[in-house]
Amino acid sequence: MVTGYLCLVLTIFLLAKYIVRKKGSEKMKHIVSKLHIPIGVGVIIIILVHMLMTYSVWNARALLIMLSGGVTALAILAMAASYLFRKKLKGNWIKLHRVIAVVILVGLVSHIITYYVDFCSYKKGVRKIEISNVDLSAIKDGDYEGEYDVGYIKAKVMVKVKEQRIVSIKILEHKTERGKKAEKITEDIIEKQNVTVDTVSGATNSSLVIQKAVEAALLKG
């Protein structure tokens, strides 16, 4: 998110070159012109870093987020290419350069807005989670699969019940960003024979999703 905002600010600064050309002072024109290329290079670097940092969670993002991000990244590379090949493009390169700059701005704004909307939906889903303890005495022996998904976090588990006790919980899938340590909550559930145990510090959301998946599995019994 931070890299997105940073890219947006820098892109606006890049577009400022064309604004101050007509209305800005000579000093302002000189400063903006001097920083134009270094900032452009900086935007490309930030985009590449952002893509590398988020690569592991691409499959957890909404399609619109990925499309807007992909279009923005391609547009930034196209802008760099239009500058590098400006001699071959001759007089057309600057017009193309400006059009691409507008595409980048629209792409960035769309990317940030779609991410924000999607993230708010995820947070709302987490807030709605309520964990209910399941009466183990009513569950037959067997292996039960359960899952729960709030968008950015998803958990799928296999719970083994024997003689009205939870004997094992196997995590089949856990889609998360920074909540892997929440997986140890299964040990507490088995130890206390209760789904409503305390969440793992620093991984509250993932803990809740795993608990909800275990609850869903037990309810099948």
Description:
The chain has a three-stranded antiparallel sheet. It is built from seven helices and three strands. By secondary structure, the chain is α+β, with helices and mostly antiparallel strands. The model has no long low-confidence stretch (mean pLDDT about 85). Helix 1 runs antiparallel to helix 5 and helix 3 packs antiparallel against helix 5. About 25% of the residues are buried. It is rod-shaped and about 80 Å long. A hairpin with a 2-residue loop joins strand 2 and strand 3. The chain starts with a helix and ends with a helix.
List its salient traits.
221 residues; 3 strands; 7 helices; 62% helix; alpha+beta
The helix/strand series, from N terminus to C terminus, equals HHHHHEEEHH
Q: How many strands appear in the DSSP assignment?
A: 3
Query: Strand percentage, roughly?
Result: 5-15%
Low-confidence runs of at least 5 consecutive residues: none
Instruction: Measure the end-to-end span.
Output: 42 Å
Number of helices: 7
Q: Which radius of gyration do the C-alpha atoms yield?
A: 25 Å
The global form is: rod-shaped
What share of the residues lie within helices? 55-70%
Q: Tell me about the largest β-sheet.
A: 3 strands, antiparallel
Overall pLDDT confidence: 86
Structural class: alpha+beta
